[in-house]
Amino acid sequence: MIRKSAGRRLARLGGARLDGSERTKPRDPRHLFAVAAGLGVIGFVGRWWAVPLGIAAGLGVERFLRRQEPAAVRNSRLQAAADLPLCADLLASALKAGAPVDRAAFAVAGALNGPLGERLERTARSLRLGGEPAEAWGYLSDVAGGARLVSAAVRSSASGGALAGALTRLADDLRADRSAAAEAAARRAGVFIVLPLGLCFLPAFVLAGLVPVLVAVLGDVL
């Protein structure tokens, strides 16, 4: 049993299977889309000189897809930003209850879980090991709005001010910013919904209203 478990661990570390065959890595879908785009261009044109065009189209699609943010990274970023106001509230509550900063960060990290909880756990570990506040709280700086939390925490550690009150105000500000952003997005959505309707009705208005008038005027003039 010990040998089998050790073999499985070594297989996982080495990326090889127990039967001796190497584990194949999943193919990158971006390459498949690029090849499909290149072949599609070549097949649509149907000429030998379309081969360079197909290669250029494939390279362009691959470069475009490479610049796009992966869905997993985007979801992690959005979830961390969504949990930040709650994180600030929980940290403020733990500090008001008398918990040290590192213990409060550990407790909130365990309650949040997710991408923000992982970052906050690193912060708590760094604080417990005696790391500098700017370095410890820097794990939250890449979260949308996290730089303000980092600034408040570093400023509080340097001046001795109450961090709980600053975190409470920060949570309120973050929620207000989110409400304003949601309202602006709703207004933009209304414009985007009306725009296709306008594009559909405009040709009909031109054909039904303006064209007969122009034809009649030109007929009288000519």
Describe what you observe in this structure.
There is one protein chain. With 222 residues, this protein is an all-alpha fold. Among the domains are: 26-68; 76-176, Receptor-associated Protein. It contains nine helices and no strands. The N and C termini lie far apart (101 Å).
List the helices and strands and how they pair.
Blueprint: H1 2-14, H2 29-45, H3 50-67, H4 71-96, H5 101-112, H6 114-128, H7 133-137, H8 146-159, H9 163-221
Helix pairs in contact: 2-3, 4-5, 4-6, 4-9, 5-6, 8-9
Could you provide a short overview of the structure?
This protein is an all-alpha fold and 222 residues long.
Features:
222 residues, Receptor-associated Protein, 9 helices, disordered N terminus
Strand content: under 5%
- Helical percentage: over 70%
Number of strands: 0
**Biggest sheet, open or closed, and with what strands and sense?**
none
Ranges where pLDDT stays below 50 over 5 or more residues in a row are: 1-25
